């Protein structure tokens, strides 16, 4: 097992953490969290990756967690892509060169897919869990129209998050931890919601352009993001090295659900390990 050390950094107002490992250091994984979340809720994934010899870089998106910025506000969805680019610039400027994998969960999965569609030359592979594409209650044209009108007149209006925390995991300790976590944000802004809703329908065309190795994972009892959306993205993805893995009983957060061990074995043994040694980066 590789020994891990932790250092923190700040770049363009983004709070980040570099989980370094001694020994092999096979590759590096950059992790992107979901909506209203923060990177500290992905330590279970990081523990598995670092124990297997992978360095990890995690950060809080703007307006989330310990990063700067108005809570839950973006001018454009591209702000989140700029956040990932800022982290990659920091990695390139401060760390040694090695293969880089990108991992995202939920909204973070959508961000990673959009990033990969435009910057896949910087990546050795991509693995996303429950990427935000088909929302649990659907995204109708009417809903987008209402969001567009509200965005025009009340972009800064805050609304209670529609996320049902009990739908995150079957593990009651995870649910309780999320409910009491001061870094988890329980509201969204109109602008943020509109920008996300506006981009999701465009993902299908962008995912078509991805040719690097991709692993899609999803819990089939996910009530927040429809698992069929991951199947649709998988089918349209142009990568010759792609896989879709669904867990029949799992909820939204595979890394925090009862199937986490099987999930970790899959992303490590059957994906990251498979492509780290043969990386083109």
From TrEMBL:
Domain (Serine aminopeptidase S33) ranges: 25-257
Gene3D superfamilies assigned to the protein according to its UniProt record, in alphabetical order: alpha/beta hydrolase
A Pfam cross-reference name: Hydrolase_4
InterPro entries in the record: AB_hydrolase_1, AB_hydrolase_fold, Hydrolase_4, MAG_DAG_Lipase
Protein name: Serine aminopeptidase S33 domain-containing protein
Protein species of origin: Candidatus Entotheonella gemina
Lineage, opening ranks: Bacteria, Pseudomonadati, Nitrospinota/Tectimicrobiota group, Candidatus Tectimicrobiota, Candidatus Entotheonellia
